[in-house]
Design goal:
The structure is a homodimer. By secondary structure, chain A is mainly alpha-helical. Helix content of chain A is 67%, strand content 6%. In chain A, a hairpin with a 5-residue loop joins strand 5 and strand 6. The N and C termini of chain A lie far apart (78 Å). Chains A, B: Homodimer.
């Protein structure tokens, strides 16, 4: 029952043989009965010669169904399109759901896009052109125009008739949107409601007039949040005057949620984590910009320690605890950063409670610093039989942790206020910055108590 | 049209007034026309006295619809249930979708669960009891039993008849699952296919026999991946003999994806990022376990530096670069860790390519280390007019970065092999571990060249 991987491999092998033997009818039968995703897996496993056969065996529409589920950021996408006859590629793009075709075209240069659009029929080309205009990461860039809309003044029976007619091309038929003569969204009715209500009921009687819609310019994160809250399978997209422009479907929202999570994770790590299966030089070149930038920031810390070199040469014991203090404060800063970024991502009230948050973080930093500081005070005091040294290390640790905790939460908040993505304030940045403040705090406290702990 | 926040606030105010004036009919009218999510928002904004009114104004079924969309990890959930009459609470739980009721009961102690189950009708209690058995994070724990199943040997017309009857209680009616006499899953038909096919067609002719199903014991991450791949709105769950047990719906998968992302992010930061709006002491107590654990690991590094104290007192310049080397290596380790954890999460072939990955990471580490090492060699050489010292720092930096890069990628791989979640290897852990190896490398290289760079 459950298509497991082995069965699928066997099936792929059979398909490949049918392809090699030019057994067109058998190939089509077996290929088309597969799920679109599995078709895509098979297609992506082929070599260019075999793919040429595919283009002669399958219609643009059949290929389009498969391309609708291949991720548009596949690195071979451009290659695939280039190896098709331009007219065939254009026809296929026209047959894809508009949002997917647009996502794919967005990965290409301007020239081929113009070429494909010129080879397409006017209607499809216009639909695509319109969607190409919307800014990345907005509801407009996610939406498709293949939805079903009706007017309220008709029976459930006639609505079902429209629905059946549109079912072949609409991306979802599970919601039907009701518009007025001005194409303004006035209601929504689910297919569930259509089939449980009597055929002679008027749509206006059974539709829901409380339609949750998103604005075409809304950020994709907000759209995703609406999906999460209301558990919808699709949402209508309107302009500022409530005109219905398109719909966003839940499968696109899953991609958004994945992308946003990957981007937050990348931010925290200071590296784009999408680098999978890259060669080492390419992988290194993705990591180096941050590393080198932070190396220069780290040089500031080195310069600072250099300034205190006389102190260190008098009391080399101070060198022993540098990495402990900077490391622990860095850890505290990373924790605080992650909590702050997360909080900014899920709540809208950052403005309102700014003061409260700041006080909260100061207190959290103080408590964390106090506990850690007392711990290290006891350890160092006992280890070195020197509680004044223990006090210096403990006090420096506490102050460094408090400052790092504050920096970890303030910096993303300030970035958010300045209009940047707070997730860009990476963990490595915070730890490197915290190295600087920690060293400053440490050597200042050490200078103050210098005579005493050496004397002991 | 688009219910904006302001409108909703006004609506809430009106509802609260109707509640206070005991205006039952008006309240019911206005409350029940809202989306379940908005009902939940209103309910959660009430005080205990007002909530008591809700329990007398709404039926258990009406409350259940709303509870179906309130997140079960809301901290007040237990309070809500406790303030209802036990029979009312039990009736409400019975009316909820089974998967949601189970999620909610899983948050409670054993005693109230037993109480509610004993107050329920046998059928609902059994459904819930069965689902309570499934392990967390498996398909079984996500699934619901409110699905529609039919036999193949009937017409589309009669299938639609069944569907209409079940539409009120099924969690989704957009897929109908076809089973044989043994309740084994043999096919699936979407509502789209049902409505576009002729009423007299047999279900067996139009159903898809290639059903993608998940096994009840499958990990929830794998279930989420199947949803991503195939863009389904629901997936059937079967046991090892293909018996149909339940379905998982896409809204639950969005929660899974969110939870997994939060857990990866928390892992990288070394803190549970779900701590939102907590008081400072609670927030600190979440962060301290990792901090203190890592403080002890950091003490090993301090002990190591202590071992080289004689070296430092002879050449205090060495102290200047400790934090630069440990910091930069730590940053490289964090990057490498994040890439490795991400790769493990999205690919299943970690076993196969283990050797290749290791070689790749060694090379990436070497390239990254080489570039960074040369950079710092030049900077230190010029700054200190001492290229031997520059060479020592550069070589130590290069070696430390290579080791940190390897540790960052190997440790999660090894954890995965040992059956742990690789995301648990946190960024702070890697940086603290890398402090130790970096210091070891640094002082060993420094010892070797000691006489020369001091001499210069």
């Amino acid at each position: 029952m459950d298509e497991n991987q082995e069965e699928l491999e066997l099936h792929f092998q059979q398909l490949r043989e049918e392809l090699d033997q030019n057994n067109l009818p058998a190939f089509r039968d077996h290929f088309l009965e597969m799920h679109f995703y599995d078709q895509g897996q098979f297609y992506q496993s082929l070599n260019p010669k075999e793919r040429q056969l595919i283009y002669s065996y399958l219609s643009p529409k059949e290929l389009a169904d498969m391309f609708d589920v291949i991720e548009e950021d596949d690195e071979h996408m451009e290659e695939y399109l280039n190896e098709m006859r331009p007219q065939y590629a254009a026809d296929m793009l026209a047959e894809m759901y508009t949002d997917n075709a647009v996502d794919l075209l967005n990965e290409l240069d301007k020239k081929p896009v113009t070429k494909y659009l010129s080879l397409m029929d006017a209607e499809h080309a216009n639909d695509i052109r319109e969607l190409l205009h919307y800014e990345d990461d907005t509801a407009g860039s996610l939406m498709t125009t293949e939805f079903v809309s009706i007017v309220a003044n008709q029976t459930v029976r006639s609505a079902m008739y429209v629905l059946k007619k549109e079912a072949q091309i609409a991306e979802t038929i599970y919601y039907t949107y009701v518009v007025n003569d001005d194409n303004q969204l006035v209601g929504v009715i689910s297919l569930r409601d259509l089939i449980i209500n009597d055929d002679d009921t008027m749509v206006s009687e059974v539709m829901s007039e409380r339609v949750i819609a998103v604005n075409v310019g809304d950020d994709q994160e907000d759209v995703a949040q609406t999906f999460r809250d209301y558990d919808f399978l699709a949402l209508p997209v309107t302009d500022y005057e409530d005109h219905l422009l398109g719909i966003v479907t839940v499968d696109d929202i899953i991609d958004v949620i994945d992308d946003e999570a990957a981007s937050d994770y990348s931010g925290l790590a200071g590296v784009n984590v999408e680098e999978v299966n890259e060669n080492p030089v390419k992988a290194a070149s993705r990591r180096l910009p941050w590393l080198i930038t932070l190396l220069f920031l780290g040089m500031t810390t080195a310069t600072l320690i250099n300034h205190y070199e006389a102190l260190v040469s008098k009391a080399s014991i101070l060198a022993v605890f540098i990495s402990l203090i900077t490391g622990t404060a860095g850890n505290a800063g990373t924790q605080s950063l992650a909590v702050a970024v997360r909080r900014l991502a899920i709540s809208d009230d950052s403005e309102k409670n700014f003061g409260k948050l700041v006080v909260g973080e100061i207190l959290t930093g103080l408590v964390t610093g106090l506990v850690t500081g007392i711990t290290i005070f006891i350890i160092v005091g006992i280890w070195k039989h020197n509680f004044i040294l223990g006090f210096v290390i403990g006090a420096a640790m506490m102050a460094a942790i408090t400052v790092a905790t504050l920096a970890g939460s303030w910096i993303p908040m300030i970035m958010e206020r300045l209009g940047f993505d707070p997730a860009v304030a990476s963990g490595p940045f915070i730890t490197t910055l915290s190295d600087l403040t920690s060293v400053l705090i440490y050597f200042n406290i050490a200078s103050l108590f210098m005579e005493r702990f050496i004397g002991q």
